[in-house]
Automatic annotation (TrEMBL):
It comes from Streptomyces djakartensis. Gene3D superfamilies: Vaccinia Virus protein VP39 (3.40.50.150). One of its GO terms (molecular function) is methyltransferase activity. It holds the Pfam family Methyltransf_11. Keywords: Methyltransferase, Transferase. Residues 22-122 form the Methyltransferase type domain. GO terms for biological process: methylation. The keyword Lipoprotein does not apply. This is Methyltransferase.
Length: 233
């Protein structure tokens, strides 16, 4: 996903431009820290105190020049209008958040308002068109059969959450003024790996396969996750 995001950033903004980035649902700050190390100014918005503590600890270990380019705000992604003015950011990330939001449209509309004209909105969502793949490949036939007609599922944390369909999000992005520009699949072949699986010695080959599959039909359509990139008109 990081490679996909970099591809979109490089293709949309001048080389060397320091972008204003908002990471909504920042988590432990993996993407935020990666982008601030690349020279951008990043604001992380997160409501989980434990995740904020992890991100702050990681940031504290960075050089001063990096620390001063990143700020962390405790807050809900649905309240971006409380914290920021419209058009304040060149890039807005919302990765792994929509599955926990029962009504995502207001959140997405708020994120689009945060973008400057031509800004990039990056979403990572659970693929509602491929919910039967994981149980099917694991031999859970009843679970696979039930997954065809729903966008609800239980994640690996044991939480009941929701997925999004590409067709629906494409319509939503068009309606909020940030139409879909590109989309990718994420975790096409590796989604069934159990937690704690060791990283293989040929990890670069694995990444190359996943990257190729994530941009190639029909493989990307059955990925566990979808990475959608919209552009503010």
């Amino acid at each position: 996903m990081a490679r996909q995001l970099d591809e979109q950033i490089v293709g949309r903004f001048p080389v060397g431009q320091r972008l204003r980035v908002l990471d909504v649902g920042m988590g432990q700050g993996t993407q935020a820290l990666r982008l601030v190390r690349a020279g951008h100014r990043v604001t992380g918005l997160e409501q989980d105190a434990k995740m904020i503590a992890v991100a702050r600890e990681a940031l504290a270990g960075e050089p001063e020049g990096i620390r001063e380019r990143m700020r962390i705000i405790e807050g809900d992604g649905r309240d971006t209008g409380v914290h920021f003015l419209p058009g304040s950011f060149d890039v807005v990330l919302c990765h792994g958040v929509l599955m926990y939001v029962e009504e995502p449209d207001p959140l997405l509309a708020g994120l689009a308002r945060m973008l400057a004209p031509g800004g990039l909105l990056s979403l990572l969502v659970r693929n509602g068109d491929a919910l039967a793949v994981r149980p099917g490949l694991s031999g859970d036939w009843a679970g696979a059969l039930a997954a065809f007609d729903t966008v609800s599922y239980r994640n690996r944390l044991g939480l009941d959450v929701r997925a999004d369909r590409l067709k629906d999000l494409t319509a939503t992005l068009a309606g909020i003024g940030a139409p879909l520009h590109a989309w990718y699949g994420v975790r096409v072949f590796t989604d069934t790996a159990s937690d704690g699986t060791e990283v293989p010695a040929d990890v670069e080959t694995l990444l190359a396969v996943e990257e190729k599959a994530g941009r190639t039909d029909p493989y990307r359509g059955v990925a566990a996750l979808l990475h959608l990139c919209g552009v503010r008109g």
